[in-house]
Write a structure and sequence with these properties.
Chain lengths: ~325, ~625
């Protein structure tokens, strides 16, 4: 186990270094310097040269990269020239908000989608299954932006029982407690995610129900409740673990579309705005952090699989 | 001239000239009236849409008025000396100017001119052939009771010099070779008079509305190198540098804006009491020592950021914001605004929209084609501005025929600038090309069949057989996409093949501006990224003068150079009119329709002067005049 862990961590570090080099080169190949965007159309050559010098963009790319990596190793994510704040401060202000929005939505989606998928599999082709399938298809094919707009129109504007925007507090505890304003953005994410997860769970459950060990369990006279919970649910959930692991990066992205629509300042929106302003330090840090989350998500999923299925061994 | 580029595509153009950033949107109209009219209860204005309630008088207690803007434009700079990287109308007009009004406040309602009553300094008096300027201060006070005077502007100028010496990017308005490089000396005959001596003449209006249009800094409170340090002699360059370094660092400390004692010393109508660096929201309370006019009682001013146009429009629909811009894509909702409890008013934001020509692109001899005035005139005839306004702008726009449009009404608008001199007419365009040696091939591609430089010939450098075919790279947003597609379609009917190529704003300004990207000089013939804005003194200095710092496609015309130079150096007010008049005829770019910038405010928000609503369309709010009526 420890050897496996060390190997995975080593591999992850190599992957992260590769991603950092790739992203750095990609940005600098497309736009060697963001000066024109950062300073505006009116900036003259003297101002652009000064900006490039101040931010190191007048140096060779590899030299710039080494400086950047050196900063990273010393815990310095850089300074946002577009926001006039350190990248670390920008992330610290928004990370908890994004994790909460995505995390609570993911949790609720799992709690709803897994039982729903099992229900649909067990009652395959019943009225309930068909209704749930139809709803899932509708929601799955609906852009989150559109779904959010509909929910806002109905529950915040036509019948103003919920807030039209998410909580504006910068205290994460206040945000967590503000169900009036947080319900709609969470609901938007939950509905779309449930539509996604429940289809996977239904399909996986149907496969498991056809397995011999289910038939044996039933033939042995095991109560149906135990068949479903002890034998089917656990095995049907295995693909879901991988799927959920891959969703972890969404905690970072914070669901940009929903943040944008519901006036919620999170990391996804920060990334989007930084992209428009070509704020390289933020873009690089965000991408690297995203890579870390992807690697972590996969690692967690692998370990979770061994717990869920003792037949799987890490080697 | 200041340029604005659409930083937000489709809608927002970023202006920057004296400090200006502009968003786009446009106006209207098309209204045919030509003067301001006042009817009982409302004020309407030529070229505008919507109406403004008549001036009111506040009663009762002061309220709190929220002002919406996009979070991506949230304030991130507080010092009145604004670096190029932080130069936006939101940092200056919306945020900074509430605390430190510029020496001369522009706008005057919807008129691109100085508003004397909001300006702490009297108009500069020019002498010595335009090289000496005497500025006298009004009897305004700082919030700590100290008088605002000549020393404060001198301190500000010395700090500008220190900032530039450290980096030219530290002051957005800086152009090498111009102010403050041309400032030879300053003197203070008394505490309320400052005299500036320049090495070369400067047009006084240009100086007033663009060059020194800055918020002033308190010499008695900010001339120090640390929070608890002693007051330093800022006229000593070494001290000026220390002071700049200190103030610059404080301004970068975004999280302390509301708590830093420095920023509490103001002379504008408001003081900052809350600032959220994460969301960009802020709260300002009235500066009780404010010396300028204001409503009494004066309302609290609250800036409320929104993460998107959709979020902002949802706020409008829910009635949760008092004053906000109407996102351009929501202009069709204007008829329903009244029923949701909002008044609205729209006017083109100051500036222009255009597609630029590349006068250096040798591909297919385009450089030589673009140099022909008849070609540029023909292209303008192929631009169906009225049709585009109707089809793509919800009718909310105005025809543009030169660097500035007919609306907002500038005192410098030339007689030939009320509309385009080259209105939409495919047949006229065809005739122009035909009469200059081109064989017309409608829906095909025209060919130069009569090469040469004489009358009726194609022009210098255009060999026989040259095809009238070139590319146009555009910022793929609305309405630019629709506009260039319409242009290409019309052009095709005249045998002009315009090959469209989609791009985005950031990529275009980094790769298709000749002086900045000479390696790509033959990769584009025309490009359309949006537009630009000006300072209220509408010289095109920078954009159309040869070698100008804001040049896009290397337009060069000795006569234009001469007129532009006169605009910035002559004391003759007619100089800039002559410049604009000439550029209206010479078509340095392809002008495109202006778009209305529409603002909405709740019907229970009123103002002591209609101008306090008019200037919203120019990103220039004066909330000290607003009040809640019920």
């Amino acid at each position: 186990m420890s050897a496996y862990l060390l190997r995975r961590i080593g591999t992850s570090i190599i992957v992260l270094i590769g991603i950092s080099i790739f992203m750095y080169l990609l940005l600098h190949v497309v736009f060697p310097s963001p000066a024109r965007v950062a300073l505006g159309l009116r900036a003259n050559n003297a101002q652009i040269a000064a900006f490039n010098k101040a931010n190191g963009y007048d140096r060779p790319v590899f030299d710039q990269y080494l400086t950047y990596i050196n900063g990273l190793l010393h815990g310095n994510l850089g300074y946002s020239y577009a926001e006039n704040q350190t990248v670390a401060a920008l992330f610290a202000e928004r990370l908890a908000r994004s994790i909460y929005l995505s995390g609570i939505s993911l949790l609720l989606a799992i709690l709803i989608a897994l039982p729903l998928g099992i229900f649909q599999a067990v009652r395959r082709n019943s009225l309930g299954d068909n209704v749930a399938t139809s709803l899932a298809f509708i929601l799955y094919s609906m852009p989150s932006f559109f779904l959010g707009l509909i929910l806002i129109q109905i529950f915040a504007l036509s019948f103003p029982i919920l807030g039209f925007e998410a909580s504006q507090s910068t205290s994460i505890w206040t945000v967590i407690g503000d169900w009036h304003d947080m319900l709609l953005p969470i609901l938007t994410l939950v509905l779309i995610t449930v539509a996604n997860f429940s289809r996977y769970m239904r399909s996986s459950s149907i496969d498991v129900l056809a397995q011999d060990y289910i038939k044996v369990a039933r033939a042995k006279g095991l109560p149906e409740r135990l068949v479903l919970t002890r034998h089917m649910a656990r095995n049907a959930s295995l693909p879901m673990i991988t799927l959920i692991g891959l969703f972890l990066p969404a905690l970072l992205a914070g669901n940009l579309i929903v943040e944008t629509l519901f006036n919620y300042q999170g990391l996804g929106l920060l990334f989007f705005n930084s992209l428009q302003k070509e704020d390289y330090p933020v873009l690089l840090a965000y991408t690297l952090l995203g890579a870390v989350f992807v690697v972590l998500g996969n690692l967690v999923a692998d370990f979770a699989l061994t717990v869920a299925d003792p037949r799987i061994r890490l080697a | 001239m200041t340029r604005f580029g659409t930083k937000r595509i489709g809608g927002i153009a970023l202006a920057v000239a004296g400090i200006t950033a502009l968003a786009a949107c446009s106006s209207s109209s098309s209204s045919s009236s030509s003067s301001t009219t006042t009817t009982p209860g409302v004020t309407t204005q030529a070229g505008s849409i919507g109406a403004i309630p008549a001036a009111g008088t506040p009663s009762g207690t002061a309220g709190s008025i929220t002002y919406g803007y996009l979070a991506s434009n949230a304030p991130n700079w507080i010092l009145p000396i604004i670096p190029a990287a932080d130069n936006s109308v939101y940092n200056s007009f919306v945020f900074g100017w509430q605390m430190w009004r510029p020496t001369w406040f522009t706008w005057n309602g919807s008129s691109p001119a100085v508003n004397d009553s909001l300006s702490p300094v009297n108009a500069p008096v020019s002498s010595n052939g335009g090289k000496t300027f005497t500025m006298t201060f009004k009897n305004w006070k700082w919030s700590d009771g100290q008088p605002l005077g000549a020393a404060d502007l001198a301190f500000t100028i010395d700090e500008i010099k220190a900032a530039i010496k450290e980096s030219p990017a530290n002051w957005a308005n800086y152009v090498p070779g111009y102010f403050p490089d041309t400032l030879t000396s300053m003197s203070m005959p008394n505490s309320s008079t400052l005299v500036l001596n320049m090495s070369k003449p400067v047009n006084p209006t240009w100086l007033q509305e663009d060059i020194i249009d800055v918020g002033m800094m308190p010499a008695h409170a900010w001339a120090k190198a640390s929070a608890s340090g002693p007051t330093l002699d800022y006229t000593n360059p070494a001290n000026a540098k220390k002071i700049w370094d200190f103030l610059n660092a404080q301004s970068k400390s975004v999280n302390t804006y509301a708590t830093n004692p420095l920023w509490q010393v103001v002379y504008g109508p408001y003081k900052l009491t809350a600032f959220n660096a994460t969301t960009g929201s802020f709260t300002m309370v009235p500066n009780t020592e404010y010396s300028g006019p204001h409503a009494n009682p004066q309302s609290t001013f609250v800036g409320v950021p929104f993460t998107s146009d959709a979020a902002q429009f949802n706020a409008i629909k829910s009635g949760s914001v008092d004053v906000a811009a109407l996102p351009p894509e929501d202009n069709p909702e204007i008829p329903s605004l009244k029923s949701t409890g909002y008044d609205y008013y729209g006017l083109p934001a100051w500036g222009d929209y255009f597609a630029a020509y590349n006068f250096k692109d040798t591909t297919g001899d385009f450089n030589n084609i673009a140099n022909q005035l008849y070609f540029r005139q023909a292209m303008q005839h192929l631009e169906d501005q009225p049709g585009q306004i109707k089809a793509f702008l919800n009718g909310d726009g105005d025809v543009l025929g030169g660097p500035i449009g007919a609306y907002p009404q500038s005192p410098f608008l030339p007689a030939n600038g009320k509309t385009t001199l080259y209105p939409f007419s495919i047949s006229t365009a065809t005739s122009l090309l035909k009469s200059n040696g081109w064989t017309i091939n409608p829906n095909g591609t025209d060919t130069c069949s009569n090469a040469g430089t004489g009358t009726g010939q194609c022009g210098a450098g255009i060999p026989a057989g040259t095809k009238m075919s070139f590319n146009l790279i555009y910022n793929a947003t609305s309405p630019i996409t629709q506009e260039v597609e319409d242009l290409a379609s019309n052009a095709k009917q005249a045998g002009v093949t315009v090959n469209l190529s989609a791009s985005n704003f950031n990529f275009m300004i980094q790769n298709y501006i000749d002086p900045a990207a000479p390696a790509n000089i033959n990769k584009w013939a025309m490009m359309d990224f949006g537009g630009e804005s000006f300072s209220t003194y509408p010289t095109s200095f920078g954009l159309f003068n040869t070698g100008g710092s804001g040049q896009i496609g290397d337009y060069s015309d000795p006569k234009a150079d001469s007129l532009i130079n006169a605009s910035i150096t002559s004391t003759d007010p007619a100089a800039v009119v002559n410049e604009l008049s000439y550029l209206n005829t010479s078509e340095p770019v392809l002008w495109q329709p202006l778009r209305d910038h529409v603002y909405v405010w709740k019907t229970n928000v009123s103002a002591t002067t209609p101008q306090a609503f008019e200037n919203l369309t120019q990103y220039d709010p004066t909330p000290e005049f607003w009040f809640i009526t019920k």
